[in-house]
Design goal:
The complex is a heterodimer of chains A (about 600) and B (about 500).
Chain A: H1 2-22, H2 44-59, H3 62-71, E1 76-78, H4 84-90, H5 104-125, H6 131-156, E2 159-160, E3 180-181, H7 183-196, E4 214-215, E5 218-219, H8 227-238, H9 241-252, H10 261-266, H11 318-323, E6 324-330, H12 340-344, E7 354-356, H13 358-365, H14 377-382, E8 383-386, E9 389-392, E10 409-415, H15 416-429, H16 433-440, H17 444-448, H18 459-464, E11 480-481, E12 484-488, H19 497-500, H20 514-528, H21 535-546, H22 549-562, H23 568-575
Chain B: H1 3-7, H2 11-34, H3 48-54, H4 59-68, H5 70-73, E1 80-85, H6 87-90, H7 95-98, H8 101-109, E2 112-114, E3 127-130, E4 136-139, E5 143-144, E6 147-156, E7 159-164, H9 174-180, H10 185-193, E8 195-199, E9 206-209, E10 216-218, E11 224-228, H11 229-233, E12 244-249, H12 251-261, H13 274-285, E13 289-291, E14 302-304, E15 310-312, E16 318-324, E17 327-332, H14 339-342, E18 346-349, E19 355-356, E20 365-366, E21 369-371, E22 377-379, E23 381-383, E24 392-400, E25 403-410, E26 412-413, E27 425-432, E28 435-438, E29 442-443, E30 445-446, H15 451-457, E31 461-468, E32 472-480, E33 491-493, E34 495-500
Parallel strand pairs in B: 1-7, 12-17, 26-30
Antiparallel strand pairs in B: 1-2, 3-4, 5-6, 6-7, 8-11, 9-10, 12-13, 14-15, 16-17, 18-34, 19-24, 20-23, 21-22, 23-33, 24-32, 25-31, 25-34, 27-28, 27-29, 27-32
The chains are: A mainly alpha (about 600), B alpha+beta (about 500).
């Protein structure tokens, strides 16, 4: 009896052992807050999540991007609060351990792009999303990767070009596996990449796409890279001016078929302030009856209309959308945290590490307005003197030092004025100096219209002069007569970058002075786009094109000299050699 | 048992021996390491007072220290520096100091400072060191005030002792000197008349609170503070921390300078009354002190006062000088100020309008900023396209000296961005002492592209003379043409300048 009991017990134990052994997977519960690799990339929603993920990671580069492109150039200077690594950037004496010069963070995003692209291809082969969805997402991520590589090329000169989905970024350190490409060869690769993308348009995702949504007070459409602009940049760097102009022009025509004329006339056209729309400097007094007579104190600090509003409005406002091509908003509710408050503000959470250089301040002070005011008011709207210190305001208009944790703002990348300046740079090099001059100074209509025909009975002849006498991509229709609304060319409000902010136009002799006008275009970038992260690239591109290091070295030298930096001459001598423009491509 | 085995020792024992050896080495090292920063010698054990007592040549100063109680002070746990005069230096000390305990205390304290100051530290140029009596004494590597340091840097456990070969007298500050002086009484009396005594609520004794308002009730006579307009708005020559040079005029010089100014300060009538005397006195004294101590040798022939007036200095006119604790005082029997500097031209900026003759014009009133032909920025008032005839901008000018003024304006139409491109007329009037001076309509110049014509347009235009018979406030008016037409009734003014005719 006892034996039987033992036998039964043993049998039960065996059964239990077998069945429990079969239950092994019961304890292998998949985590609920992490997505396993084999579960990702199942549907188009997963693909959208991957795109958002890459852009989220990309946004983490904002601080480094700004520092590399502005501190190394001539518009921003470091304060005494800046850390030693920032000071190294300022004096072009970067050591290998400088975190701001570490290319790894760029490659981390690039490898993410590569991984996402690989998986998009897999999804496409397995028909997990429609061909249309695949093409848009794939092209978007390729363009973003091109942007990152162009940045690397500008900052480091020669860099490894990787399109494989590596698992670990540190594998890249092996130079024998990943040879470096010079900037010129890199440009060829990138242009080839961009030319091969299956979908190209201004907007990465048209309205109606699952990636274009309004959420948390922002619209996502302009958070994605503009592919025409990207290709335009690459062609401009490469020196293919006609192609560059063609792509930039495509950006200008983004809304050209929109039946809503507010969008059609205003989007990326750099127009004069029409009373409702406009992003130029304006004054709140006087008016046409007073011949443009203004009190100095009547400068508009409006946050919804005019120059300052570009840096105040949210990305759902019409005026914002007329100007900004690419910008990524920060929301205090989510990561990443806006890094610019800390860099620029001198109150609250600000550490005031960067300030406008004296050369920038002087450039605004000596650039008169057509209304007789002897300085460029864009300066007053770009920086302010607060507690006796010059403070860059473009990034912190929406920041209140009394609420230091709320750091709303944006990472500003590309906008209309920059588009017109780059287009003009290409057009100027392509022999269209008059057109470049027009876009820089007084606009298409003012430059090309034949005023002698204005009062003639032959309106058609007069109107005909308001279309630029060139083939595309240099053809602009700026037709306008007050008496007949039927004649309204899409560019009739174009006022020129200087014109819309009321700054005196340059002498017309620049229309036939290619290198002179090119330098003026770069100068204008300093006045209009100061601190927005364009400067170093603009200086390098033009100096490189001219094979004239002094074009860059002299400007950086003047900044350091005027700000009393004892290393000014040393830096100038160093920058006279092009090899020293580039950062060391090393990481720890 | 073999020999070798006898001396064999276990691993554990060997380890212990090694430990002991290394421990002894480390122990032996300890002392010399810890002593690395130590200073040895007498200085470690002797206090400052011990040091002084040990030097027979300092016995007089030691006695003073004991007598005044400073012997105890310098034995406290703080650090001090003492510059001790030798017996030879002190034996002839004025009996009035020795016998007056307060004076003696101040005298002794004039040689002691908080903190330690060695002669290795100060630069060749003197640094001024705060003494315990509140005075600052210049100290160099070799001197203390005018005394030579004979033995320097004797360290004690609570400070440093320097022996000096002469006593350093307690000097008066410039303001203390002025209070005690017997020369230059006119100036002294006027300056002291500017004293004002008030109750400082933070210093006064609170004896209760007003039940109605909750404000503190202050005990009368407590917390009294004296201020002086000269000290607050010219130079604070009572401040020991900084150095000044002060000029005291003899009565004759003072009266002579006052007489030159009287006619610009007629008030109720055309004679010198007390108000006129006060105003001229202020005009005179406001330029009689400068910052910085100028010794006689360093005194230049001309200094600039805080009011930007040139102070002419004739060294032959110096009748006495005093080296104060915070600078120099020079008594002068003549100081020939230029009246044109004392009564300077007055500039009225166009944009500083006090009032307009009519409301509702704000949309037509502009304050444009322009760059003149030299690139210098200036602001103007411009009233344009206003449908009011004879519109007027009023400027209230305060405290205008009585004089005849030559009146100029600078007003330029047709600058870049200015719709007023043609000349027009406007006029300036003055109203003072119930008298209206109308300088009549005059044309405003127009900017030109021709450099010479442009420079002319920017030059000042003479409008006429205005007599201000009595010192006081004057209302200046800028009046537009009697018209409502655009480009005719414009007002435009950079500035008006009133240049007094000095006779």
């Amino acid at each position: 009896m006892k034996n039987i009991l033992y036998n039964k017990l043993a049998f039960l134990i065996v059964i239990a052992a077998i069945s429990l052994g079969g239950c092994k997977k019961m304890f292998d519960v998949p985590p609920e807050d992490k997505l396993d690799i084999k579960n990702a990339y199942k549907t188009v929603a997963d693909a959208d999540a991957a795109v958002i993920g890459v852009y989220g990671k990309f946004q983490g580069l904002a601080k480094q991007y700004l520092l590399l492109n502005e501190v190394r150039a001539d518009l921003l200077d470091v304060t005494n609060n800046a850390d030693p690594y920032l000071k190294q950037l300022n004096t072009h004496s970067v050591t290998v351990d400088n975190p701001y010069a570490d290319p790894r963070s760029f490659y981390e995003v690039i490898l993410n792009c590569n991984d996402v692209l690989k998986n998009f291809n897999v999804m496409n082969e397995k028909h997990l999303m429609s061909v249309d969805d695949y093409q848009k997402r794939y092209s978007d991520i390729v363009s973003l990767r091109c942007f990152l590589y162009l940045q690397l090329g500008i900052q480091y000169g020669a860099v490894p070009y990787v399109t494989d989905a590596l698992v670990n970024v540190n594998d890249l350190k092996d130079e024998s596996l990943f040879p470096k490409l010079s900037l010129d060869l890199l440009l060829d690769k990138l242009i080839a990449d961009m030319s091969a993308i299956p979908y190209i348009s201004s907007y990465s995702y048209p309205t109606g796409s699952s990636l274009v949504i309004a959420t948390d007070g922002s619209n996502t459409q302009r958070m994605f890279i503009n592919k025409y602009y990207m290709l335009g940049e690459l062609q401009l760097w490469k020196g293919n001016y006609l192609e560059a102009a063609r792509n930039y022009k495509n950006v200008m025509e983004t809304e050209i078929n929109n039946t809503n004329t507010n969008f059609m006339f205003n989007t990326f056209h750099v127009n004069y302030n029409d009373g409702t729309y406009g992003n130029g400097v304006l004054y709140t007094d006087g008016g046409t009856n007073y011949g443009g007579l203004h009190s100095e104190s009547a400068l508009s600090y409006s946050t919804t209309y005019g120059f300052k509003s570009m840096f105040c409005l949210g990305n759902t406002a019409a005026n914002w959308n007329h100007e900004w091509i690419w910008a990524m908003p920060y929301n205090s509710g989510f990561n990443p945290v806006n890094p610019f408050v800390e860099l620029f503000a001198n109150t609250g959470a600000g550490k005031y590490m960067l300030k406008p250089s004296q050369t920038t301040i002087d450039a605004w002070a000596s650039n008169p307005q057509a209304n007789g005011i002897p300085y460029d008011a864009r300066g007053k709207l770009s920086y302010a003197v607060s507690n006796g210190q010059p403070v860059v305001m473009k990034y912190i208009y929406n920041y209140d030092p009394l609420v230091p944790l709320t750091r709303n703002g944006m990472w500003y990348l590309w906008r209309g004025a920059g588009l017109h300046l780059h287009y003009a740079e290409a057009a100027n090099r392509d022999g269209k100096g008059k057109l470049a001059w027009a876009l820089l100074n007084t606009g298409i209509a003012n430059t090309f219209a034949d005023a002698s025909l204005a009062s003639s009975s032959n309106t058609a002849a007069y109107l005909a002069t308001m279309i630029t006498p060139y083939e595309e991509p240099y053809k602009f229709n700026a037709q306008y007569i007050a008496s007949n609304t039927a004649y309204r060319g899409p560019y009739h409000k174009n006022a020129g970058v200087r014109g819309r902010s009321g700054v005196v136009a340059l002498n017309v002799s620049y229309q036939t002075d290619m290198t002179g006008l090119e330098a003026k275009l770069v100068d204008e970038g300093g006045l209009e786009l100061a601190f927005e992260g364009n400067r170093w690239a603009d200086l390098v591109r033009v100096a490189r094109r001219r094979n004239d290091p002094s074009f860059l070295a002299e400007r950086v030298y003047q900044k350091l000299l005027r700000d009393g930096n004892p290393e000014a001459s040393t830096v100038r001598a160093k920058l006279m050699s092009m090899d020293n423009w580039y950062l060391p491509f090393k990481w720890k | 048992m073999t020999l070798s085995k006898k001396y064999m020792i276990g691993n554990t024992t060997r380890f212990l021996i090694m430990m002991l050896v290394s421990l002894s080495i480390l122990t032996a090292c300890k002392d010399s390491w810890e002593e690395r920063g130590m200073v040895s010698g007498e200085g470690l054990t002797l206090s400052l007072m011990d040091r002084i007592n040990a030097d027979a040549n300092l016995s007089l100063f030691s006695a003073f220290l004991t007598k005044t109680g400073y012997a105890e002070v310098i034995n406290s746990s703080k650090n001090y520096t003492i510059w001790a005069p030798t017996n030879a230096a002190l034996q002839n000390l004025d009996a009035s100091i020795v016998n007056d305990s307060l004076k003696l205390k101040s005298f002794v304290a004039n040689h002691i400072s908080n903190l330690t100051y060695a002669t290795s530290v100060p630069a060749d140029t003197a640094q001024r060191i705060l003494m315990l009596n509140g005075k600052y004494i210049p100290f160099t590597k070799t001197t203390f005030d005018d005394a030579t340091i004979s033995t320097a840097n004797q360290y004690a456990k609570n400070g440093i002792l320097h022996v000096i070969s002469a006593a350093v007298p307690v000097r008066l500050s410039i303001w203390e000197y002025l209070n005690s002086t017997t020369s230059g009484l006119n100036q002294k009396n006027y300056l002291l008349s500017l004293n004002k005594t008030g109750q400082d609520t933070t210093l006064a004794t609170v004896i209760g609170y007003d039940p109605a308002t909750g404000k503190p009730i202050l005990k009368p006579g407590t917390g009294l503070v004296t201020t002086n307009r000269f000290l607050t708005s010219v130079q604070n020559v009572s401040n020991e921390q900084k150095q000044y040079t002060f000029f005291l005029l003899t009565d004759a010089a003072y009266s002579a300078e006052q007489a030159k100014l009287n006619k610009y300060y007629y008030t109720t009538s055309l004679d010198v009354d007390s108000t006129t005397a006060n105003l001229t006195s202020w005009n005179l004294v406001k330029d009689l002190a400068v910052s910085g101590a100028y010794s006689l040798n360093a005194l230049p022939s001309q200094l600039i006062s805080v009011n930007n007036v040139k102070i002419p200095i004739d060294k032959n006119a110096i009748v006495a000088s005093y080296k104060a604790s915070n600078g120099w005082v020079y008594v002068m029997n003549s100081m020939n100020f230029a009246v044109s500097e004392k009564i300077p031209p007055i500039t009225v900026e166009g944009e500083n309008v006090s009032s307009f003759s009519a409301g509702g014009a704000s949309g037509n009133i502009f304050y444009p900023i322009r760059s003149d032909y030299n690139g210098v920025s200036y602001k103007s008032l411009e009233v344009y396209r206003l449908s009011i005839s004879g519109f007027t901008a009023n400027y209230r000018l305060r405290n205008i000296p009585s004089a005849t003024y030559k009146v100029y304006w600078r007003s330029i139409a047709g600058t870049t961005g200015d719709p007023q491109a043609v000349t027009f007329n406007q006029k300036v009037t003055f109203y003072s002492s119930n008298i209206l001076t109308d300088l009549g309509y005059k044309p405003v110049s127009v900017a030109s592209t021709d450099p010479i014509a442009n420079a002319l347009a920017y030059s000042e235009r003479y409008l006429g003379d205005c007599v201000v018979s009595k010192y006081g406030n004057v209302t200046m008016s800028l009046i537009a043409a009697a018209s409502t037409s655009v480009n005719v009734n414009t007002l435009l003014l950079d500035y008006v300048k009133l240049v007094p005719v000095i006779q």
